[in-house]
Specification:
10 helices; six-stranded mixed beta sheet; 24% strand
Length: 335
């Protein structure tokens, strides 16, 4: 190739990079707008914003193309997009626990699992409860058949107390515990049953943990409005005092404005803590574990009041379900 041919080839390559930049940058920019602007976006925006952490890859690629394409405006746009992704990967609005309250803390291992229409491997759930020394278990998509299989696998011997609402399909939910539970009813006007229970922390002394097993409707199709109402109802489940645990499938990630509003106490309650986010594990995916060719995202959460401290957060696969189990050790103050 002649010397004059080389510059021409570089110009063609640079032009190709400038054209490739456009289809790569447009979806990153669109989802970034949805993530940044706090309005009630339509269903497609809500679904796409769940995958915000994965946009770091195409955002970095746009920056490379911008430099190869020798376009100043593309460099500025790509740098801005990548800066936004980096900011959202490590959000500054993550709230940790408050200073540990005075008194004797009770240590409790909590776990949640969405059993996917009751098809999760019951023996696998019970084995994980046993291995992790789980004291409190929330099960979503809890069916009568799964209830019987869990009993046969030995769960009642490990967690003898329960508040259970089995239903065929996806609507049933249960709370199991090694400590005494008092049934507190269910949250009103939700598509799936969300039971509320009071867990006795100190042998009848009156100290209790308020527990809500959460399962919101997924924000797909016409269900977007109900999803928002479900999250608002969960936010109002905070009584305003005493330790609180919300455990389950929120069908929402930290990148959803509606979930961050719940944590911020915008429903009228206290500010709350997403255990995974507070421990630096918010990007560990819990869905889909199988069945969908999608990047993993975090839909399952353990959310607590700020008087509770947490440690040992972990995510575990269970056969038969597309959700992972989430487990953490909680330290709950007892006066």
């Amino acid at each position: 190739m002649t010397a004059s041919g080389r510059p021409a080839g570089r110009r063609r390559a640079a032009a190709a990079c400038r054209w490739l930049f456009i289809p790569l940058a447009l979806p990153v920019a669109a989802v970034s707008v949805v993530r940044a602007v706090p309005v009630e976006w339509p269903v497609l925006g809500v679904e796409l914003v769940a995958f915000t952490p994965w946009l770091t890859v195409p955002a970095a690629a746009t920056l490379v193309l911008a430099f190869l394409g020798r376009s100043r405006w593309q460099r500025v746009l790509a740098g801005s997009l990548l800066a936004c992704q980096a900011f959202w990967l490590f959000p500054v609005d993550v709230r940790g626990p408050a200073a540990e309250a005075a008194g004797r803390p009770v240590s409790l291992v909590a776990m949640s699992i969405n059993a996917e229409l009751g098809d999760a491997d019951a023996a696998g759930i019970v084995d994980l409860v046993r291995e992790q020394h789980v004291d409190l278990l929330a099960v979503e998509e809890y069916t009568p058949q799964l209830s019987r299989r869990l009993t046969a696998a030995g769960l009642d011997g490990l967690l003898p107390h329960r508040v259970a609402h089995p239903r065929d399909g996806a609507g049933g939910t249960a709370i199991y515990s090694s400590l005494s539970l008092k049934d507190g009813g269910v949250l009103p006007a939700t598509q799936f049953t969300m039971p509320v229970a009071s867990l006795d922390l100190a042998d009848g002394s009156g100290a209790a943990l308020r527990v809500v097993a959460v399962h919101t409707l997924a924000p797909v199709g016409d269900a977007l409005g109900q999803w928002r109402r479900d999250l608002a109802t969960v936010a109002r489940a905070d009584s305003g005092s005493g330790p609180l645990l919300l455990a389950g499938d929120f069908n929402a990630t930290y990148d959803h404005r509606e979930f961050r509003a719940l944590l911020a106490g915008q429903g009228g309650g206290r500010t709350l803590v997403d255990v995974a986010a507070s421990l630096g594990s918010r990007l560990v995916p819990t869905w889909p574990m199988r069945g969908y060719r999608l990047p993993g995202i975090t839909l399952d959460h353990l959310v607590t009041s700020r008087d509770i401290t947490a440690s040992g957060y972990s995510v575990h696969r269970i056969e038969g379900t597309d959700h992972a189990a989430v487990v953490a050790t909680l330290r709950i103050p007892v006066p």
